Amino acid sequence: MASNNIGMNETSAKYIYLPPSWPDIRFSLYLVGEAFSIPCYLFVFYHLLARKAARKTLYNHSTIVVLLFNFISLTIGLPLIINYSRRGFYVPFNPAICYFHQFVDYGIWYGAIITMVWLSLERHILIFHSNLVSTARGRLIFHYIPLACVSLYSPIFYFCIIFIRSCEHNLDATSFLCGGPWYRCPVPASLSWYMAVCHDIAPIPLIIVISGCLLIRVVVQKHRLQRANGWRQNRKMILQFIFIAATYIIFDLPLVTLTVMRRFGITNFGTNVSTFISPMANTPAIVISYATVITLPDLKQKLRMLIFYKPTQRHVTASVRQT
Questions:
Q1: Model-level pTM?
Q2: What is the pLDDT at residue 308?
Q3: What spatial distance separates the first Cα and last Cα of the chain, rounded to whole Å?
Q4: Any idea what the Cα angle at residue 62 is, between residues 59 and 67, rounded to 5°?
Q5: Taking every pair of C-alpha atoms in the chain, what is the biggest distance, in angstroms?
Q6: Which residues contact 143 (CB under 8 A, 6 or more apart)?
Q7: What CA–CA distance (Å, rounded) separates 223 from 74?
Q8: What is the pLDDT of residues 274-305, one digit of tens each?
Q9: Contact, 152 vs 238, CB < 8 A?
């Protein structure tokens, strides 16, 4: 996850005062957050995938992809982080576990945040230029192809970096991510800057700018043009986007700021808070399911049915056949 930019290695915290109970507090927060979030994910997936109308709704597609990436991070990446944070090393230490954790931490985490950038931009198309996706060809060009390219970009990019790049990887069981994909196997400076700018720095500011522009356009359309009907039609989509975007902005912006400052030479910036900021990058995977579930239509009725569900009893009436 984005914690890889700064390093989650506990040895970096030896110059920072931390409460003695901080590892236990973080472990408890992660564990409780994961335990409550997984059922919420399953509830959301069921209601977005089981109903044909929800599956065919275009704005749900990018949301499902973002949720899927975060669900993988929650169920695979976060347990590995918890295991490492508690022990300070990987148990069991296995190259397959190291490489898989690196792929989830980079390919899946960045896949979610880069797809979120497209989700932000796509809302403009779906709300203000819906004619572009009114035909099958338009949906293919302006919806399905961009979503596929954006969502697959990061997993493919980091799969090549981690598994295909010709380099002898040296793994360290005592380092977070076993040292990372470029531990004693650095990438060229140009590629390093490309990843820093396009993957670490740009996505969150882009989400902020695109989200701000969307909200301004919606407010202008609603009040100046008196188009309340358009607001009611797009209300669920706009609210869903606001909650998901706010989740990323709140929990990832501090880490992006820290990354930018350190990338440009201010190495001591945020030293006293970096140990607290880094774990915040894992929070969207926990919180985003709640940000989505509260925008589901007829949520109260669905929760009531789930809690008070009673299986229907089938009554079989025996018939007597006269002979």
A1: 0.85
A2: 54
A3: 75
A4: 120
A5: 97
A6: 58, 61, 122, 125, 133
A7: 40
A8: 777 888 888 999 999 998 988 877 665 665 56
A9: no
